[in-house]
């Protein structure tokens, strides 16, 4: 079981955004990296589960008794793609 990294606070960043994207979700996300910064260096985006597999995400959630949207129980595999403008195929949703 992978562990998330809990302490990230680069000097100079005034905003920190934590997102749940993973490298295995797409080739573009795999190129991104666990940490990224906007061009002026003031905002850092941190992806603590970047290296997790889908199975590891579910295992982590189960071990920590974390809630999840009931739509997953109805067969949906990804939920954020519905509203994402970068989604490859909007017709799929």
UniProtKB/TrEMBL annotation:
Pfam families: PAPS_reduct. GO terms for molecular function: catalytic activity. InterPro entries: PAPS_reduct_dom, Rossmann-like_a/b/a_fold, Sulfate_adenylyltrnsfr_sub2. Residues 15-85 form the Phosphoadenosine phosphosulphate reductase domain. PANTHER family: SULFATE ADENYLYLTRANSFERASE SUBUNIT 2. This is Phosphoadenosine phosphosulphate reductase domain-containing protein. It comes from hot springs metagenome. The lineage of its organism: unclassified sequences, metagenomes, ecological metagenomes.
